[in-house]
């Protein structure tokens, strides 16, 4: 069942916040709205057509001069019960406020008769948002009948704190439905899951116990994997998360989540899930220990004490673990499964990066590798850069933020 009078034309402009707007599109589709999307040229740098087309089941429009339908923009605006622009950049807001129409998105604005809602959700740097010309343009748009969903405040993509943040999708959906005066239709996740890829994500570091208070571990927070799982879930993708057993994870109550602590735990969980369920992709972001404790020499007895004495010299004997990524294809019920591996390097030059990434590609079914280096991570400043390598391609895609990575991996898993 779909909403009556519920055809929405959704326009993306070029902002890092576009990844959040994809979640809004997914929410609208799940509520029964018929959504058709337009991407500006700059928006396509942040999100892919495949992601949007997979969610909506409709072709994404990008070109004003489509040879197959030269008057298509008139029909797009005429057929829509409402238009939503999210995120709306400073450039787009200032452009349409002054009547410029040099691409499909801005032409659609001039073709709008304001008999139906035109909703704009700004997203930009605080200084751009508060600039007198931008505020003047926003006021001007309000005066001619545009509804503005005012930007929120918080930490922005540039690292600054202030106004200019795109509103959260859950807030926007409430405001949009107030404007449309529609009663929400219950979500239809089952119909979406039938056509979208099923994904398993691993994250966090393994912990190898030495005694009751000491352990060997990898310094991985699991934040990237958790962010990916939540983002894919918000898009309506069927996702399973296998994560280090951490407290206080803010995850949806009905998300499929399995926990691990040790290397053996992770291997066991993956073997069980992959052999029983059919996944299309595994995104293996877990930081897996290369070693497990074999024995402790110098303690005088075979069984490890609950707490080792710090007064004695001891020797830890470690045994190498096999690479879990090498077992994924073997464990998998779906023999065509695709794997996205992760590789963290430390102060690596181009040659070392290539060698490290090539080692990951050597494992069966690995199609993509996300590489990052400790020198490109600054948690205090919110900096986290990645490189996305594709098999048989020597040039990686450079990714400037975790948010961009979420959007790019969504595009990757939905394009095939």
What is the CATH homology-level superfamily of the largest domain? CoaB-like
The name of the CATH architecture of the largest domain is 3-Layer(aba) Sandwich
Q: How far from one another are the termini?
A: 28 Å
Reported by name, the CATH topology of the largest domain is Rossmann fold
Main sheet: which strands, in order across? 12-11-8-13-16-17-20-21
Shape: elongated
Q: Strand percentage, roughly?
A: 15-25%
Spans with pLDDT under 50 lasting ≥5 residues? 183-194
**Count, helices:** 14
* CATH class (first level) name of the largest domain: Alpha Beta
Which value, in Å, is the CA radius of gyration?
25 Å
Main sheet: strands, sense, barrel = 8 strands, mixed
**What does the average pLDDT come to?**
87
Tally of domains = 2
Number of strands: 21
Helical/strand content category: alpha/beta
Helix content: 25-40%
Short synopsis of the structure:
By secondary structure, this protein is of the alpha/beta class.
Could you characterize what this model shows?
The structure is a single chain. By secondary structure, this protein is an alpha/beta fold. It folds into two domains: 7-188, Flavin prenyltransferase-like (Rossmann fold); 196-414, Rossmann fold (3-Layer(aba) Sandwich). It is 32% helix and 25% strand. It contains 14 helices and 21 strands. It has helices spanning 18-30, 49-56, 72-79, 90-97, 104-110, 126-130, 132-143, 169-180, 189-193, 223-234, 263-276, 328-331, 350-361, 402-414; strands spanning 7-12, 34-39, 82-88, 118-122, 147-148, 152-155, 161-165, 199-203, 207-209, 215-217, 239-244, 256-260, 281-284, 291-297, 315-320, 338-345, 366-373, 377-378, 383-384, 386-390, 397-399. Strand 1, helix 1 and strand 2 (34-39) form a beta-alpha-beta unit. The longest helix has 14 residues, at 263-276. The relative contact order is 0.11. Residues 183-194 have low confidence and may be disordered.
